[in-house]
Design goal:
Protein Transport Mog1p, Chain A; six-stranded antiparallel sheet; about 30% helix; alpha+beta; single chain; elongated; about 325 residues
C-alpha cells in the first residue's frame, strides 16, 4: 500500500499480468522524502554529480512481480527533475551512453514524449520525469529474456508515463528541429549547456543522413527573446578565433568543437534569427582556410540557413530553454 496519494497515482496496481509486489516497499528519495537523494543515485548506479547538475529533485522506486511460482520482476523507478530540460537531458544522455557502448540496443517506443525499449530495460520521458524499468527473471535462459521482457516493459512504460502529471512534450528546441531525415534516436538535449559549452544554456541537436551520404548535425537554442539569443551568439563567438563569416546569412558564426577524448575537431556554423540560434555541422575536420571556403563549410552555411528559414520566432515566445 502506498501512503502518498500523489505517488500512488504514478504506479498502477497491475499491468500486463504484473502487479505491484506486496512484499516490496515503494521507496521515495528527495529533500521532502524519507530517504536522501544520494542513496537513490547509489541504488540506481548513477552519477551523483551529473544528477545534481541536471537538478534531480525526487526518485521513487517500486517493484512489479509476475503472478507465478518463479516470477519475473520489473524494477520501476520514476526520476523527477526540476524542469523538462533536466529530464530530457538525462533521457538522451542514456541513449548516447548506450550508443557508445553498443548496448543495450534501444529501439523507439511509443510512450510519453519519448520512449525506448532495450533487451531488458525501457525508458520513457514525460514532462519533468523519466520512467526507468529493468526486467529480471531467474527462470529464463539469457537468450529468452528479451522476448519475454518486451511486452511487459512496453505496457508498463506506457502505463507509468501516462499516469505521470504534465504534458508529454519535449523542450521547445527539440520540438523545432526538423524531423525529415533525422536518424532514429539521434536526438540529444544538452543541459545545463549544449555540447558542454559553458554559458550557452540548454539546447537540442540531432543527426541527419540519407543512406551513405555525409552525416549532418543540426543544433538549436530556443530562447525567451532576441536579446537572450544574442547573448548565446556572443558566447559562441568567443570560442573560436576568426569566428565571424563575412557575407554569410544570419550573422553566421564559426565554432570548432574539440572532442576531449580524441582531440579531433568538428566545425559548426551558427546563425541567429530572433529568439532562435541554429547551427549545422558536417562530418569533416575543421580547416583554417584563410582563402576561400571548403565545400563542407559552404554546405553547413546553407543547412544553417535552411534550418532558420523554416522556423519562426513567435513560436518560442515564453520559452524557458
Amino acid at each position: 500500500m502506498i501512503a502518498d496519494g500523489r505517488i500512488a497515482a504514478w504506479f498502477p496496481r497491475s499491468v500486463a499480468g504484473y502487479c505491484l509486489d506486496p512484499n516490496a516497499d515503494v521507496r521515495a528519495f528527495g529533500a521532502r522524502a524519507p530517504l536522501p537523494l544520494g542513496d537513490a543515485a547509489d541504488l540506481l548506479t548513477l552519477d551523483r554529480e551529473r544528477l545534481e547538475r541536471l537538478e534531480l529533485v525526487e526518485v521513487v522506486t517500486a517493484s512489479y512481480v509476475e503472478d507465478r511460482e518463479e516470477p519475473a520482476r520489473v524494477a520501476a523507478s520514476v526520476l523527477r527533475f526540476a524542469s523538462v530540460n533536466g529530464a530530457t537531458a538525462f533521457f538522451t544522455d542514456r541513449l548516447a551512453e548506450a550508443a557508445e557502448a553498443g548496448r543495450p540496443a534501444f529501439r523507439p517506443l511509443d510512450a510519453g514524449a519519448a520512449g525506448v525499449l532495450g533487451e531488458a530495460t525501457a525508458l520513457a520521458l514525460r514532462a519533468e520525469a523519466v520512467v526507468r524499468l529493468d526486467f529480471a527473471s531467474r527462470g529464463l535462459a539469457p537468450q529468452n529474456v528479451a522476448q519475454a521482457a518486451a511486452p511487459v516493459l512496453a505496457a508498463l512504460a506506457r502505463a507509468l508515463a501516462n499516469a505521470l502529471p504534465g504534458k508529454a512534450e519535449l523542450p521547445v528546441a527539440a520540438r523545432l528541429l526538423p524531423e525529415a531525415g533525422e536518424l532514429p534516436l539521434s536526438l540529444r538535449y544538452g543541459a545545463p549547456d549544449l555540447l558542454g559549452w559553458e554559458g550557452v544554456g540548454p539546447g537540442a541537436l540531432a543527426t541527419y543522413g540519407e543512406g551513405g551520404a555525409q552525416h549532418l548535425r543540426l543544433a538549436l537554442f530556443a530562447k525567451r527573446d532576441a536579446d537572450a539569443a544574442e547573448d548565446v551568439r556572443r558566447t559562441l563567438r568567443k570560442r573560436s578565433p576568426l569566428s565571424v563569416l563575412k557575407h554569410a546569412p544570419y550573422e553566421a558564426t564559426r565554432v570548432v568543437e574539440l572532442d576531449p577524448k580524441s582531440g579531433a575537431g568538428v566545425e559548426w556554423i551558427f546563425g541567429q534569427k530572433g529568439a532562435l540560434v541554429g547551427g549545422a555541422s558536417l562530418d569533416a575536420p575543421p580547416r583554417a582556410a584563410p582563402r576561400g571556403s571548403p565545400p563542407e563549410r559552404e554546405r553547413a552555411v546553407l543547412e544553417m540557413k535552411r534550418l532558420l528559414d523554416g522556423l519562426h520566432g513567435p513560436a518560442v515566445v515564453g520559452s524557458k530553454d
